[in-house]
Amino acid sequence: MVHAVYPGSFDPLHNGHVDVIRRASRLFDRLTVAILHNPLKSSALFGIDDRLAMVRESTRGMANVDADAFEGLLVDYMRSRGASVIVKGLRVISDFEYELQMAHLNRQMNPDVETLFVMTATRWSFVSSTRVKEIAKYGADVAKLVPPATQRRIVDRFGAAAIRRDDALRVGDAEGDGEGDAADEDERPVGVGEGDVRS
What we know:
Elements: E1 3-8, H1 15-25, E2 30-36, H2 48-58, E3 65-70, H3 74-81, E4 85-90, H4 93-109, E5 114-119, H5 129-137, H6 148-158, H7 170-175
Helix pairs in contact: 2-6
């Protein structure tokens, strides 16, 4: 049985994440969505319990998918779970440059672990957790960008103004969606440890 891990901060979970989860779940016997818990990082929009709930609610129809939280080095977590494959989603070229380095470093620390890159579906290639948070904070609708489990919590956090507005994507367009996202600290996939977290 091949057990894969899809690590990240998922703050919040969006449709690009769900797409990668769904596709990766078809490739492996078991897939764990591993959410990094960094108690020293206070900038997270949602706590670890909310993020775990978002993933669990959004993957209820995927029998081989589970959600978990971890701290410290990803390779240590992989060993503890008996997992052998790291799944990473790629949106842009700069994502690949960063993730290639992390894949090599992870393999140096644990030669038994392989990294699989999954290209984000074109329809979600402009979506990032950072952009979702920016749009929601301006009171725009993010329902087209996130699963219902995330949408409900965003509405609870920002109020009814986040439910429906015609300019849902205009704020993101004005901010330059898709350009520079790879450097956004809150969107980069988990690296090898807390100091490298850029999910």
